[in-house]
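Reminder: ligand-aware prediction takes two inputs, not one.
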Amino acid sequence: MHEPLTRLKLAVGEVVDLQRAAALLEWDEQVYMPPGGAPAHGEMVATIRKTAHEKLTSDDVGRLIDELEPALPSLDPDSDEHRIISVTARDYHKAACVPSAFVAELAQTVSTAQHAWIAARAQSDYSKFSPHLARLIELKQRYIAFFPPREHPYDTLLDEFEPGITTADVKALFAIIRPRQVELIRSIADRPQVDDSFLRVPYAENDLWKFGEEVITTLGFDWTRGRQDRSVHPFATGIGPDDVRITTRIVPNEPFSLFFGTAHETGHALYEQGIAGDYRRSLLGDGASLGIHESQSRLWENLVARSWPFWQHFFPKLQQRFPTQLGTVSAERFYRGINKVQRSLIRVESDEATYNLHIMLRVEMEIAMLAGDVSVNDLPALWNSRMQEYLGLTPDNDARGILQDIHWSIGAIGYFATYTLGNVISAQLWNAFGRANPDRDADIARGEFAPLLTWLRSNVHRFGRKYKPQELVERVTSSRIDPEPYLQYLESKYRRIYEIT
Ligand code: ZN
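Here is what comes back for the chain with zinc ion:
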């Protein structure tokens, strides 16, 4: 038993090394690489990813898994040994189902589709992207066919990002969330808008950057195992738990986008930095799923950094840094201003109250596309009518409508639901932490974040991929994934801010 497991760990360790090397190159592409480096980078990353895939699906790994899998029933299901074998076997079987010729064809299609999307969005011309989207949908349908049939074809795609979560789970979640959020934004629209005029004045970028660094240091970001840089789109990437990199960006006329971007990516980074050191070179050494990852970024960005206790502590410090802009603004007015709800056509500009509606629209369209219920040519009209139904807005053009997100062009179909799952799970974890630590809000108002981080470390972070999302949520909260805590959080927060009775 031990001998084959040791050999499996060694073989998988090399797969992990290669994946991390590819992630480091991808980070470099977004942060430092001169544009001329793109072709060489593309080739390097493709070679590394291909080599990692070959190593994971090698006969050697296959034999070791065949040897180890029969021992699973005799192992404690909660032991690391059991989980290393079962997670590795899951990844192996999944990777082995997909022929490498298909992987190459998909990579090629994605590369062309992404360029077409960039051009189509720039010209707001959906017809330039639609043939590529049709091709990607067809490839995804072929991909699904490599796997045993599921209740819904979309289940196979969801499982890539959110192991164990089904289309039926997501539909049930949306059916509860949709009417409550639509109703909430209607009641907000009936109230006078909050004043955020203090955000419409210039702020020195460098001071905003320093403020963000000061805050995330207090939150617990470990600078000996992490760094922050600037990129066009903010992201976080783990080159293992000891080297976690985040980026943020400057958005013209949105001074605090930089700060909340930093807070969001820090949530991802704290998760990665907290994964058990023992998992460093194993397939357990990543987040449990994109939804669990997003629960961490949204917990720190929204439940912490957009909360009233947080600004009770940090607003005086912010005011000191920006006396001209904020000298006469009260903490309460600032808190309301940064939580302004404004229906928007653009997902990445949307606020907490409206965000999930943007997600539902996309997921519902993906499910329809995959099932063949809607033709590619009819998608923009469907997008626009749903946008009107959910948010009361109609895009003036496709660039601000169906062409706004990069996801479909890079073949990431099945990804969007993870954002809503992240929102939902963040509130469940927040409540569980509040039950374990009744001083939660008072701690935050004093700038004490160690109790929260310690709790997340021991209940969520250290486990990496050991547990599937549903299993992890049940362990920590004694409840299945449930939208009620999130809806209650949103409703009580915005009723207070907008004085809805
Ligand atoms: Zn995120």
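The radius of gyration is 23 Å. Strands lie at 226-230, 236-238, 244-248. We will return to this case in the review session.
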